Amino acid sequence: MIEVRTVTDRRSLGHFLDLPYRLYRDDPNWVPPLRFERKLFFDRKKNPFFEHGEADYFVCYRDGRPVGRITAHIDRNYDTYHKTRHGFFGFFECADDPETARALIETAENWLKARKYDRIIGPMNFTTNHDSPGFSIFGADTPPYLMNPHTMPYYPDLFRAAGYADEQLLNSWALTEPKDLPQEFHDRDEKLCAKYGDRLQVRHIDLKNLRRDVDTILKIFNEAWCDNWGYVPMTDREITAMADELKLIVDIRLTYLVFLDGEPAAFMVSMPDINQILIKNRNGSLFSRHFFNLLFNSKRHINQFRVMLLGSLKKYRLLGFDALMYHRLLHDGLDTGHREVEMSWILDTNRPMNNAAAHMGAHLFQQYLILAKPLDPTA
To answer: Whole-angstrom Cα distance, residue 122 to residue 239?
Structure first.
């Protein structure tokens, strides 16, 4: 007998949080998140998503044993910006069992239909502004980079069997031993510096003035990304929360802010790939030697990093500041001991960005799939 229950107390939340650790226990490519971080993330009082969103968490039980989970959520900022009634599912996990999957999927759909939503999209965890969305469909035989997904290969078919269609494909590109970028990256950097001289300023994020630099990044991000699929304006509290989380691991030498005539123009944020350490910490415990390695010996264990965010204000988009930042990033990355850089996520339909990654010498590393289905709120 199977039954889907809403998470309502600490015990059921524990079942919800613990399920991936059991499901992926023998999967060497799954990166266990820190348990304390997941508790904070799903805490409605602490996650800034809940200032403009609503969600419920569900666990499926078979004969009293947790065997699957899913969330259903809505984002009022998404509704306002896109002028739609599109809801989402996320954090789906279950064994390769169509009955369990169907019960979870129908629960999420019914939750959204009860709120008069006419489409469901996912997996989205909760927005595109945090953990990367999607199911793994290519490259899952290799561990993902920081904040990218790793999911069971049968998940897309479980949703297709329930009437879902492919919505978007997201690409991850990796550049190994990035010693020699094409000459035009170097030339663009030199030409920009020669053309603008002292009018052009390129610097790293200043942790002593992090609030100021976070405000600069937020301003550029919300203009640079506003036309992208899945975009939701990032709130001040959301980017502050992300900054507080990531500043614990940031290497400022892998971050850039570009100013022209004193005005913010572009930015790039890259992070050391702490998944290289977390993957060894199989139970996600805060009190393990692997976590302490992260805190005290990260430089010895991490030799790759991820470009997480990149953007330019529209009026500067064609000047080539992205090439300038990539040129300096790969030079600085090698100087800091990193030997591989990953760039994600990039929509498969974004030909200029995908072509640029390939032109840099990167190879397609992983792909993630988003699915969607129309809903009838009157049914």
So the answer is: 22
pLDDT digits (tens, 9 = 90+) for 30-63: 999 999 999 999 999 999 999 999 999 999 999 9
CATH value at residue 124: 3.40.630.30
Nearest to 188 by CA among 9, 356, 12: 356
Phi/psi at 326 (nearest 5 deg)? -65, -40
Same-domain check for residues 195 and 256: yes
Query: Hunting for tokens 């999209």 — which residue is that?
Result: 121
Asked if residue 91 lies in contact with residue 97, where contact means CB atoms within 8 angstroms, the answer is no
Tally of domains in the chain? 2
Instruction: For residue 347, give its domain range.
Output: 175-367
Q: What's the rounded Cα separation, in Å, for the pair 310 and 225? A: 9
For 43, list phi and psi in degrees, rounded to 5: -80, 115
Q: Which 8-state DSSP code applies to residue 250?
A: -
Instruction: Please indicate, yes or no, whether residues 181 and 103 belong to a single structural domain of this protein.
Output: no
Assess contact for 285 and 291: CB atoms under 8 A: yes
Same domain membership, residue 209 and residue 166: no
The pTM of the full predicted model, rounded to 2 decimals, is 0.93
Kindly report, residue by residue over 240-281, the tens digit of the pLDDT.
887 787 777 888 889 999 999 999 999 999 999 989 988 988
* 33 and 122 assigned to the same domain: yes
Cα gap 147→139, rounded to integer Å:
15
